What we know:
With 205 residues, the protein is α+β, with helices and mostly antiparallel strands. It contains nine helices and six strands. It has helices spanning 10-13, 30-34, 60-76, 91-103, 109-117, 126-135, 140-149, 151-167, 188-204; strands at 7-8, 41-43, 49-55, 79-85, 175-178, 181-183. The longest helix is centred in the N-terminal third of the chain and has 17 residues, at 60-76. Residues 1-26 have low confidence and may be disordered.
Amino acid sequence: MQRRQFLTLASLLAIGAFGGSRLLAQGVDVEAILHDPAAPMAGNPKGDVTVVAFLDYNCPFCKKAAPDLERAVKEDGRIRLVYKDWPILTEASVYGAQMALAAKYQGGYDKVHHALMAIPGRGVSKEQMAVAVRASGVDIDRLNADLKAHAGEISTLLKRNLAQAESIGLQGTPTYLIGPFRTSTLDYAGFKEAFAEARRRQAAE
């Protein structure tokens, strides 16, 4: 049963469910994780359950789960999805995250994110990522310009994501914070169950 994979964040954050404001060990609070204005977001911005996804573009488990997560979020209609680019596996992972975040400035994060997640395998090179980004439909000239113009902001966001992941003891990708729970790789049914369990917990509080 998928529910057995869920770990409550109460033990990790020492504040119970998400929504508290107590500072975490390294100075990153729950509000910062949930509502970083620089973090890309999908789904329903007014959703009743927030999912925070820590991902790496060279993570095969992230890629496997991505279509199921997207489908579950779309069908549910009440999920607020926050992406945390956390490139911890390879140098190319950092490049991919930088490209996706640069695309955000032209409203193209989703296009690049999906293109990079669709590349099979775990040893994806910068060159393969560049080809996928070009084929995604974004304005590549503007992306490169934004990558240069916003290099500092992108680097700061990636460092902030890393600090947030470390502050709650995350060990690898993918990691999903779903309401008051933390879990790893799930399939479509698992995501649906996690959403339902998060709502059950919220209703009980």
